[in-house]
Amino acid sequence: MAKTHLDRLKDLREDSDKTQEEIGAYLGTTKQYYQKYEKGIRPLPIKHLISLANLYKTSTDYILGITNEQKPYPRA
């Protein structure tokens, strides 16, 4: 079964040994808000999507499940 962006958010966070609280702080929000992003209760703002792609050194397309290639694109 294909991974959804929600699965990828959680997998990337866990693979980086980060807590939801740490990621929430990184994004300038709370653990509770970040939990809602991971669970799909609240939509992930584009600015947070970009921040997470930079943090995890991947592409926004990977996080969104558009590609299975985790390596980021070359910068413009």
Describe this structure in words.
The protein has 76 residues and is an all-alpha fold. α2 (20-27) packs across α3. The radius of gyration is 12 Å and the shape is globular. The chain is built from 5 helices and no strands. The mean pLDDT is 92.
Keywords, separated by commas or semicolons:
5 helices, 58% helix, mainly alpha, globular, 76 residues
Rg is 12 Å
Shape: globular
How big a fraction of the residues is strand? under 5%
**What is the number of beta strands?**
0
Q: Count up the helices.
A: 5
The oligomeric status of these chains comes to: single chain
**N-to-C order of helices and strands:** HHHHH
Provide a brief overview of the structure.
This protein is mainly α. The protein contains 5 helices and no strands. The radius of gyration is 12 Å and the shape is globular.
Could you give the topology of this structure?
Layout: H1 5-15, H2 20-27, H3 31-39, H4 46-56, H5 60-64
